[in-house]
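#lab-general

N.A. 3:47 PM
ok so I finally got the sequence cleaned up, no stray characters, all 239 residues accounted for. can someone with queue access submit it? mine expired

B.Y. 3:52 PM
send it over

N.A. 3:53 PM
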Amino acid sequence: MWCFSLQRRSLHSSFRLMKKLKGKTGAEQRWLQRQLKDPYVKASHAQNFRCRSAFKLLEIDDKFGLLQPGYSVVDCGAAPGAWSQVAVQRVNSAGTDPELPHGTVVGIDLLNIQALHGAHFLSSHDVTDPATHARLQELLPAGRAHVILSDMAPNASGFREMDHEKLIAMCLTLIDLAEKTLQPGGSLLCKYWDGSLAHKLQKSLSTVFASVRTLKPNASRKDSAERYFLARTYRKPVK
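B.Y. 4:20 PM
back already:
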C-alpha cells in the first residue's frame, strides 16, 4: 500500500511537471525535463524532503558524521528548508527519539521559510547582519553552535565568473559568523562554485580550521561547478 502511494505521488508529480512544459522557453523546458528524469527529485518527493539538495547533506553526513544527536546547528541560506529537515532528523531537535539528546536547529534566509517542527527559522534575516548574530546567540544553547551549514548562493546573473566571485564573498562572511557563534572544535560546511577564487576561500578557512577538504557529493550534478568545503576543528583566532 505504501509503495503504491509513493508510485502514485511520483506519477502525479511527473504529470504536473509535464503540464508546466507548455508555453516555456527552450531553457525552461530543458530544466523541467531534467527534473523529470532526476532520481533525486523523485526521491525527495517520496521522502517528503522540500528539495533534492537534502541528499547532498545526507551523503556528506553519512560519510563524515557532522550532525550528532544533541548538536546545535545553524543553517545559512536555509530556504526552502531541506537541509534543516535533515539537520532536525540527525540532531533530534524535534525530540523524535526521547532516549537521545535534543539538538537545536536555526535556519536563516533572506527569503521566507515555511515552518518546520524542530527548527527555528529567521526569515527575512541577513546572515551578515550583527543583529542576526545577536539573535542567533539568543537561540543557541550557551550562544554557540557545533555546526554551521551553508547552501546559500546569490541569484544567478548568467556570468559565471561574476557569480563565482559573489558566492566566494558570501562564504567568506561565514568566517565572521563562526567567530560569533561557532564553538571551538566545531565544523563548517559551505557550498561554493569552482573558479579562480576558490583557493582564497580555502586559505582563509585554513587559518581558523585544522582541516579543510573539498567535496563533490554524488547528488551534486556532474555538469555543475558546485563544490563544498568541509572545514573541521574550529580554532577561534587570537586577537
